[in-house]
Amino acid sequence: MRPAHGGDHLGFYETYGQEPLDFSVNVNPMGMSQKAQKVLRKTADQWVYYPDTQYRRLRQAVGDFYRIPPEFILPGNGASDLIWRAGAMFRGGRVLLTAPTFSEYECALSAFGCGIRRHFLKPEDRFALTDRILEEITPDLDALFLCNPNNPTGRTADPALLGLVLERCRENQVILWVDECFNGFLEEPEAHSLTDKLFEYDDLVILQAATKLYALAGLRLGYAFCGGERLRESLAGYGQSWPVSIAAQEAGIASMEDKDYLSRSRALIAGERERMRKALESDGLEVLGGEANYLFFRTSVPSLGTKMGEQGILLRDCGSYPGLGDGYYRMALRMPRDNDRFCEALWRIMGKTAK
Fold it and tell me: pLDDT per residue over 260-272, tens digit each?
């Protein structure tokens, strides 16, 4: 069974008889960059051709943006494509995952027979990564997967701790895979990224994507960064010949060049993140994390997801994540008017509960 993700509009319609206001998918609420849309219209006549198998222009653009050599970059059909390649690469191996975390890792790794060991993040630590993880990085492991900021908790790992994790992995010959797909929404993205370590550590892989930050979920564009040539070529060997379409490539390049779009997106998210945090807490919800473009919270209100659905709102119920349970939810940050509707629906539900 594939893991449940957000965005099930058809299922919502079948249940509630209407299209939802979707807070279950944490994609940039500004939508696709206008420059990207313009480029897509302009380059449509090129879609009859196969993409460049080397993705020279795309890798150069990504390299310029993240300040790493283009040869370190492996494009993919979204982040999930590269995660499933990792599953094939680690086939039959032993992998350490935190819990809770993005469910696609376990799905892909288990499909290729990997043995999964879980490191449970604790509620008393507000689901932050602590130095307890160091004890579990042992020589019998092939890889450690971390999501930073983590999904669904929205927590970043302390940069100093990440440095210790990296060293511990090197000592035990464990490949460290760090998913930074939500890094671009942080207030200080570079302070929480390991991209500068790619030049020193051959067994480090960083996952990035245009899916969330640039709202290209339907076009599918992701990339893995790896300074180690042998590891990078191994990962590349499990992919198809043309994983990224010309449309996704051109939209991705245009999006990264649109600096104004990026700055406005970050300002919007920062403002709404703080505003919505205060709103949720004022309604009695416990906000446990939220440094990116979503908030992770806990509530004692029974079946909040169902009650919000009755109000026309699709909310991500996190009860199915290992390490969580009933009462945990993740809400994406949307445009202010949509967030206001979320608050209004929540107020009605809390009012009914109070009675």
Answer: 999 999 999 999 9
